[in-house]
């Protein structure tokens, strides 16, 4: 068979259609498409349609095995085991991130009862430590997950997490709360957060945003239920037993979660059967789309959590009772519950980076609008809308990282590095917000401006990373 056979003598400017590996008997059956040139050619990287030698047969088998390996490594994108991992993630996030979203209830209680002599800015460091150790823990948990999988991390993580709640229940001093509810709580949370979200990315591809949205919506449902339950228990049985009952509920949630959350089993051809590549932090950070996205998420999370801490205080300053103001967190998380599922669905169809930018921009606009909001109805509406737009910011970040990471063996590492970068924003954002309130003699103007500006700036950095990864206006 000749190397090239032209079926129509056309000008060099005509389009060329390639038909590899066709025999001469097949050429007579090919239609000529007007001015289009039809070419039959052999590609050196592929064997002939009919192998002519033992060497070509071996090469044909080798290529087939490589194709099978690629197929084996693709996430199943569904199935019973995959969705059980999502259910396990939902339970874990209800118990962990849902309770973290409720710290505003504890902050309000501490300011009025347990630590009345301390300012809100000082008390906010307890919640900020939760976020800091949750985020920076990814630097350690990510590589451990890549090497050992999920279960060796989520079981001890659940133990640490529940013990932190029990130690909090017997704490009466500020430093005790810092250690138990701040440091220990954050570490236990990290040991559950990263294995869960990384496992889900292994089981899903085209439906990844939806799967992550469903799992992370557990934190939103927890954010609805925990404030109502904790406020009721605080009013009726006091701080100690209210916190202990919270811990017992977490035991009931995390026990099945530890069984359901699992890494995807490796196959003989899968890249997951190979050891993770040697860590190259400098090389990872030289990837500009990844670095800009991480910087964008730093600014986004620097400002995002401030309303979770101070919205109840804002409500009380505008005429709401303590219990009604604490219910604002339930309204916020109710909006987030719907958004995390819907945003994941939208992200899978219109682009994960596009959805992330839309969520960040929406949060920034709402915060700028908070300047003129003083009525109770408007504050409740703000809480719901802010929950809707902030809901996708946590669930989509891992989906975005997975989208720009061809080697899925290092997804855990890259998520961990990004979250470590974000940890310093989570550590300082809420105390800065509290300090601005104090500096404004109880006014919220400085806090609102700070959170709105940095959150919006983070959204535009995410947009810049998106156009570096995919310059054309399309789904990404």
UniProtKB/TrEMBL annotation:
The lineage of its organism: Eukaryota, Fungi, Dikarya, Ascomycota, Pezizomycotina. Keywords: Membrane, Transmembrane, Transmembrane helix. The keyword Translocase does not apply. GO terms for cellular component: membrane. Belongs to the major facilitator superfamily. Monocarboxylate porter (TC 2.A.1.13) family. InterPro entries: MFS, MFS_dom, MFS_trans_sf, Proton-linked_MCT. One of its GO terms (molecular function) is transmembrane transporter activity. It holds the Pfam family MFS_1. This is Major facilitator superfamily domain-containing protein. Residues 81-474 form the Major facilitator superfamily (MFS) profile domain. PROSITE patterns: MFS. It is found in: Membrane. The chain crosses the membrane at residues 82-102, 122-141, 153-172, 178-197, 209-229, 241-262, 290-310, 330-347, 416-438, 444-469. It is a multi-pass membrane protein.
């Amino acid at each position: 068979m000749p190397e090239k056979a032209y079926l129509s003598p056309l000008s060099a400017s005509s389009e060329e259609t390639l038909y590899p590996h066709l025999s001469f008997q097949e050429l007579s059956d090919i239609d000529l498409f007007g001015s289009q040139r039809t070419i039959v050619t052999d590609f050196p990287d592929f064997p002939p349609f009919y192998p002519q030698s033992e060497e070509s047969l071996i090469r044909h088998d080798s290529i087939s095995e490589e194709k099978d390996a690629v197929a084996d490594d693709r996430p199943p994108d569904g199935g019973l085991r995959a969705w059980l991992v999502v259910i396990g993630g939902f339970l874990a996030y209800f118990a962990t991130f849902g309770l973290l979203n409720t710290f505003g209830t504890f902050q309000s209680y501490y300011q009025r009862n347990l630590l009345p002599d301390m300012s809100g800015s000082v008390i906010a460091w307890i919640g900020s430590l939760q976020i800091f150790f949750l985020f920076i823990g990814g630097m350690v948990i990510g590589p451990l997950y890549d090497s050992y999988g999920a279960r060796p991390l989520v079981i001890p993580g659940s133990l640490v997490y529940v013990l932190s709640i029990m130690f909090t229940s017997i704490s009466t001093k500020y430093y005790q709360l810092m250690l138990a509810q701040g440091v220990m709580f954050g570490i236990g949370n990290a040991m559950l957060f990263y294995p869960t979200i990384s496992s889900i990315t292994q089981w899903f591809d085209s439906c990844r945003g939806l799967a992550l949205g469903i799992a992370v919506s557990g934190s939103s449902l927890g954010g609805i239920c925990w404030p109502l339950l904790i406020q009721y228990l605080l009013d009726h049985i006091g701080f100690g037993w209210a916190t202990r009952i919270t811990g017992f509920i977490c035991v009931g949630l995390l026990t099945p979660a530890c069984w359901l959350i699992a890494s995807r089993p490796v196959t003989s051809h899968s890249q997951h059967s190979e050891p993770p590549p040697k860590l190259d932090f400098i090389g990872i950070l030289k990837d500009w789309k990844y670095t800009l996205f991480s910087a964008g998420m730093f600014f986004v999370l620097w400002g995002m959590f401030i309303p979770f801490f101070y919205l109840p205080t804002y409500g009380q300053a505008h005429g709401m009772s303590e219990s009604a103001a604490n219910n604002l967190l339930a309204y916020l998380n109710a909006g987030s519950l719907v958004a995390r599922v819907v945003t994941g669905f939208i992200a899978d169809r219109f682009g994960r980076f596009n959805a992330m930018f839309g969520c960040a921009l929406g949060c920034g606009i709402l915060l700028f609008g908070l300047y003129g909001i003083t009525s109770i109805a408007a504050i409740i509406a703000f809480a719901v809308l802010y929950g809707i737009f902030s809901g996708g910011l946590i669930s989509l970040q891992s989906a975005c990282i997975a989208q720009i990471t061809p080697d899925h063996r290092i997804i855990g590492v890259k998520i961990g590095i990004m979250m470590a970068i974000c940890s310093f924003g989570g550590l300082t954002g809420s105390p800065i917000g509290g300090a601005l309130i104090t500096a404004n003699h109880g006014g919220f103007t400085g806090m609102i401006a700070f959170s709105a500006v940095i959150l919006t700036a983070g959204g535009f950095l995410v947009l810049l990373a998106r156009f570096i990864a995919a310059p054309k206006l399309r789904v990404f």
